[in-house]
Amino acid sequence: MKVILTEKITKLGNIGDTVEVKTGFARNYLLPNGKAMRWTRENVALFEAKKAELQARQDAARKSAESNVDAVKNAKLHMIRQAGDTGQLYGSVSTRDIARMLKELTGINIESAQVLLGAPIKSIGAFDTQIALHPDVIVPVKIYVAQTQDEIDALVAGKVLTFGTKKVEEEADAGTAADVSDASAQPAKEPAEEPAEKTGDAE
């Protein structure tokens, strides 16, 4: 579908650009949120008439985004999640989860589309991502995901949590060493004595 952008959209275009987008994206996101207009001759003329107003709105949105940079940058994105022995999460952390937490921490209404995460987070660790408060205002943030607050604190301190094969091998090695130690501490068993042979004639 051909649309006219009524505001700047990251990776799509600037205000006033005419672009081709997927119909579903236009109908479900761009058009209902007032971010674009369906391309028609009438709408081209309408856009030109409203261009100054739309540009002023865009400038105001950018200034508002800039005022929220510090709040987002300083938000503690610490997520407690259940995980297996290998550090893989039971589930994942999505852009929606991050947007929801940011809103709770800062009071700023952030949509999941503004979280530039890429793929969902599926393991414990520290992850870098970005929040697009505005196409011209991108804020880098770090997300910490772990099973406990103690693990979160360790990640924040720059420590690396050990999971998976290495951890299993370490535990196995420790168990083997303990078995060897126990075995060496026990005295060796002497062979049982053979019964003495009877001598003489039976009565």
Quick structural gist:
The protein has 203 residues and is an alpha+beta fold.
Give structural notes:
This protein has helices spanning 23-30, 41-67, 69-73, 95-106, 149-156, 165-185; strands spanning 2-5, 18-20, 36-38, 77-80, 88-93, 121-123, 125-134, 137-146. With 203 residues, it is of the alpha+beta class. The protein has two domains: 2-67, 3-Layer(aba) Sandwich (Ribosomal Protein L9, domain 1), CATH 3.40.5.10; 71-156, Ribosomal Protein L9, domain 2 (Roll), CATH 3.10.430.100. Strand 7 and strand 8 form a beta hairpin. 17% of the residues are buried.
State the fourth-level CATH superfamily of the largest domain.
Ribosomal protein L9, C-terminal domain
Helix content: 25-40%
Examine the secondary-structure arrangement and name the CATH architecture of the largest domain: Roll
* Unreliable segments of 5+ consecutive residues: 165-174, 194-203
H and E string: EEHEHHEEHEEEHH
> What would you call the shape?
elongated
Per CATH, what is the topology of the largest domain? Ribosomal Protein L9, domain 2
Number of domain modules? 2
Averaged pLDDT: 83
Q: What count of helical segments does DSSP give?
A: 6
Rg over CA atoms, rounded to whole Å, is 32 Å
Strand-pairing-aware structural class: alpha+beta
Q: State the total count of DSSP E strands.
A: 8
Report the CATH C-level class of the largest domain. Answer: Alpha Beta
% residues in beta strands: 15-25%
State the end-to-end distance: 118 Å
- Could you describe the largest sheet, including whether it forms a barrel? 3 strands, antiparallel
Strand order of the largest sheet: 2-1-3
